[in-house]
Amino acid sequence: MWGIFSNHSFDDETVYDDDWILHASDQDYLPYFRTLNSLPDSTRMEGNCLHAGSGFGKNEMYPCFDEDITYGLAVLGLNITGKTFPTYLSTSGAVSEPQIRSGERPSQLTGAVTVTGLTGGSRYTIYRYDGTDTLPTSTASMAGYAHSHTFMATATHYVYTDPNIFLSSSAVYYVTTPAAASPHPTPLRATAIPKVPGLGLPLVSLGTGSGMHADVAAATELWVKVGGTAIDTAYVYGDEDAIAEGLANAGVPASSMYITTKIPCSTYADAKAHIASNLKDLKVSVVNLTLIHNPRCQGAASVSATWRALEEAKAAGQSVEIGVSNFVESDFETLKRTATVWPPVLNQCSMSVGYHDDATIKYCNSNKITYMSYSPLCGGPNGSSCQHGSVMDIPVVQQISKVHNVSSAQIALKWIVQQGIPLATAVANEQYAREDLDLWSWGDLSADEMKKLADAKLG
């Protein structure tokens, strides 16, 4: 069902016989307009309600409601106060919806948005919302949008092809307003994001290794747009050239960003080659921080040989600082026997509400090694896969988010940075990117809230 329509106020909870719905039919793929008084059916739900066509199977042509049902479903619609313009969406992709219940995956769709009633020479903004929970009630505040597009009208209508895909099983809404009526939130600047003392690393970095970014160049450009100043990548991600492209598109030099990259555990020669490759693809002569990606080595590779290459990169000015990732105490003690530069400045590990290696965090703190979180919203040793569950689904995270009137993601990230621990996180869209950087304007978590989050469990 696509919508419910009424000539009465949407604030009126009364159901009127002349209210109507718009729905699709799996029988002929056509849209149908139905008044609510045509919907009742017998308890057998045979699809024989009023106006049902003959010759069709049960419930194929017309959906109906059990006549014994005495409750209704409240549907949130676009009941927005303020000036908006007629906006229509046409989609490309499959005609028939996949059978989700039988295991078929939803189809990926793209859409063309047509806006009418415009005045040439005026500026407008199209806002896209990816769910009913973020829909605005007034053009005075359009927060919660997933994507936005501002344009100058040259005619009475405008067609915008949305480059951001959505699933056939999702709910997507577009709202168009005068651009002046709904300005974008002011981007956060570098000074608003605290840094790790002595290291200069902003507490929030864009992490490009989660697989969430189909277009890393676009994600990088978006991150710069909303005020992000740190990017976390790696040789094995294969996206460093896309990061360079995104920075160029954003019109900022790489030197204005704090760039962390990683190389795999390798032989000395291979490690040197990986370091050179990182710099070449990023189109820079130096990065801020280079890490050994993992202490688990294959064949002739060794942590000591890889670290020696990093020590030389630091001495040669190719990496300002060097560190490690996914190390535990025994890995540090092994490296310490042969290291010339000690200790590593940073250890990046999976950490989130519900999953944190307290023993390794304690070791790092005792040895003046900055501990950094990756996969801060998906807990577990393989956190980026979310195989252990999303942190945002933990009840205490949701409860605390309501207290502070922020998103569950912001609470989960705040718990980390309030401990002085930097993090790298992926961004799905502009609104989430802004939220990920807005962890300080609304105050701190209480000691009791911090403890509850520390004690929380996944799943």
From TrEMBL:
Superkingdom in the source lineage: Eukaryota
Residue ranges of every copy of the NADP-dependent oxidoreductase domain listed in the record: 213-454
Gene3D superfamilies hit by this protein: NADP-dependent oxidoreductase domain
One Pfam family here: Aldo_ket_red
PANTHER family, per the entry: ALDO/KETO REDUCTASE
Protein's name according to its UniProt entry: 2,5-didehydrogluconate reductase
SUPFAM superfamilies the record matches: NAD(P)-linked oxidoreductase
One MF term in the entry's GO annotations: oxidoreductase activity
Organism: Chrysochromulina tobinii
